[in-house]
Design goal:
Length: about 325
């Protein structure tokens, strides 16, 4: 049985991009990642039923969930993701290879997060380039620079710009019917918040908003379609390259933020793991730091912040 065929036909919105995925459109959920896990595990009694629209499901296609509001949005390292109405919150389930070693530093799961960040960054750049921002095609309101130049990636999986953090990604592994899946959670700040959320704890970046790049109103479902489609494009290319990140290394490094900056990397408890100057990423998507002794140290996970009070991006 396919993953998508588990659900009632009236429960899912068909993709508007030619039938390459199924999209469940909801008003409010606790978390799109959690909602997608419930649906994949057939825990339908716990699922949200406040669908905005209903269309017939298309079998054997990837399944995604999109919501207008999250009451318990999740971020990396167990953090809360502030999720007011007006921004994009979605999750997409994708297959992983059956022999993926999720504990290994160079495993496909460890590389999935940077890969999805690269896909989301590219999708947002394409969106902005298709819009007229302050009368200038494909240019930012803050600098006049093309989005291809301004939209960057903060390792491993945040999309940032000079104004701050535009998007974050949360990758979770899930098993259903002995099949390994990855749930890709994506949050994009679209409309400005009334104030900076109290739960924002990124020490390097303030929130930034996609609407500030665009001259026209943003249709969130259309934006979701662009993001999901681009993730699928990158994911299937990754599959064709046997889940090797090396094929994406140059593109990722071309858009990596904080290169040549002095940073520190901390673990989930805040304990210092390493510090040094950012050199880029390696073929396994590990961050490369040059330490005080000139050695290049690969970092597999952690939170990157600037050292020596180099300033909050805002």
């Amino acid at each position: 049985m396919s993953l998508s065929s588990r659900f009632e036909p009236a429960d899912v919105r068909g993709a508007s991009t030619g039938g390459i995925y199924n999209l469940i459109v909801l008003d409010e959920v606790d978390s799109t990642n959690t909602e997608l896990r419930r649906r994949l595990s057939q825990d339908l009694d716990s699922c949200s039923v406040r669908n905005i629209d209903q269309r017939v499901i298309q079998p054997d296609l990837p399944l995604a969930v999109m919501a207008s509001v999250q009451t318990a949005g999740q971020g990396r390292l167990g953090r809360h993701w502030s999720s007011p109405r007006g921004s994009l919150y979605l999750s997409l389930a994708l297959s992983m290879p059956p022999d993926a070693n999720t504990q290994a530093q160079a495993s496909p799961l460890a590389q999935a997060s940077p890969l999805v960040a690269l896909a989301v960054r590219d999708a947002l750049a394409r969106w902005v380039e298709s819009d007229l921002a302050v009368g200038h095609p494909g240019k930012s309101v803050s600098t006049g620079r093309a989005p291809e130049e301004q939209l960057r990636i903060k390792w491993p999986n945040d999309v940032v710009c000079e104004k701050g953090k535009l998007a974050g990604i949360l990758i979770e592994c899930f098993v259903v019917d002995d099949k390994a899946l990855v749930i890709c959670g994506v949050g994009v700040n679209v409309e400005p918040f009334d104030r900076r959320p109290a739960d924002t704890d990124d020490q390097t970046y303030n929130p930034a908003f996609l609407a500030n790049f665009c001259s026209r109103p943003i249709n969130l479902e259309q934006l979701a379609g662009v993001v999901i489609t681009n993730i699928l494009v990158y994911w299937y290319k990754w599959e064709r390259h046997n889940y090797r990140f090396a094929s994406f290394r140059d593109e990722y490094n071309a858009h990596l933020d904080l290169v040549a900056r002095s940073v520190k990397v901390s673990d989930i408890s805040g304990r210092l793991q390493a510090n040094g100057v950012v050199m880029g990423v390696d073929e396994h998507a590990r961050l490369l730091l040059r330490d005080a002794d000139g050695r290049v140290v690969p970092i597999s996970s952690g939170e990157v912040t600037l050292r020596y009070n180099q300033g909050l991006r805002e």
